[in-house]
Amino acid sequence: MNSLEIQKMEQTNHAEIHLLRAGGFMHAYNRSAFHFSRHFFEYEVHCKYVKKINAEMLYLGFPNSSLPQIQTMAQQKKMNFTKVDDNHFVITGFLVYSDYDLWKREKFKAHAEKSAVEDSVPSEQKNSGLEPPALPNQKPSHSCDIKPAQMMFATKEFYECTRYIVGRTSEISRSLRVSIVERIRNACLDLYHHLDLCQHGLENFDKEFSKKQFIQISEILRLLMDLKQISKEQWFYISDKLLTVKKTLRLQSSDSRVAGDAAQESSSPLAPG
Q: Containing H/E element for 123?
């Protein structure tokens, strides 16, 4: 079964575990992997970008020799274990959990964060324990290679953040809407548009542009909080979201005004006491 067939099968799968043979292993993909983790063993879940379908797929695997044990467990749990052919087995008749989307987001997030950490260290230094040497006269790059899984996760997270900001700023007093609100919305939309194009391979990721947009968004958010147009709780929520996206894209900044700083560290005279 090829990747396109697996994707289509899992898109319509709600209450089945499909186990597919791949060499010496049995694999479960996407929702099948979710159900398997809930009812059998929580094997490590991997994330793989499949170029043919232009999408990320989650999957877990276990040796073929463990299949009889899985079959016995399924029968003990009063589930149905069906052999479709030598390379495809289906388990049904189990309790269906409803938190698949949350599980999927957590797996994508864990994979993206792991990739960000691994990619930040040169391969020749990963096992040396040494800090990367300073490179004199090195010019900053305006683009940065981000893996598809990281870009997909960052784009989804930033979309949620943008949607939240647009919703919250609609409640702000009209005197501020034309100037401040329009600026932050435009900054969010411009950055989201850029990330979305990068996700689909239509643009190269521009690190410097993205950093500037994040700084602009964070400064306006701080101002809105100081003016008591958004609450501390809302500010912390948005800042945490922005920081997650920045870490995924490796855009951490030492600027004290960017998202993630504690509200009490603000030097603004308007900061609430």
A: none
| Gap between the Cα atoms of 135 and 101, Å rounded | 43
pLDDT tens readout for residues 170-229:
777 666 656 788 888 888 988 988 898 888 777 788 888 999 999 999 998 888 888 888
190-198 long-range CB contacts below 8 Å, 24 or more apart? Answer: 191/158, 191/217, 192/155, 192/158, 192/159, 192/162, 195/151, 195/154, 195/155, 195/158, 196/155, 198/146, 198/151, 198/155
Long-range contacts of 257-264 (CB under 8 A, 24+ apart): 257/215, 257/218, 257/219, 257/222, 258/214, 258/215, 258/218, 259/214, 259/217, 259/218, 259/221, 263/225, 263/232, 263/235, 263/236
Residues in the chain, overall count: 273
In angstroms, how far is the first alpha carbon of the chain from the final one?
62
Q: What is the dihedral of CA 137, 142, 145, 148, to 10 degrees?
A: 170
Please, which residues bridge with residue 36 across strands? none
- How far apart CA 114 and CA 24 sit, in angstroms, is 27
Listed in sequence order, the residues at least 6 apart from 94 whose beta carbon sits closer than 8 Å to its beta carbon are 15, 17, 35, 39, 77, 79
Contacts 24+ apart (CB under 8 A), 177-186: 180/220, 180/223, 180/224, 183/216, 183/220, 184/216, 184/217, 184/220, 184/221, 184/224
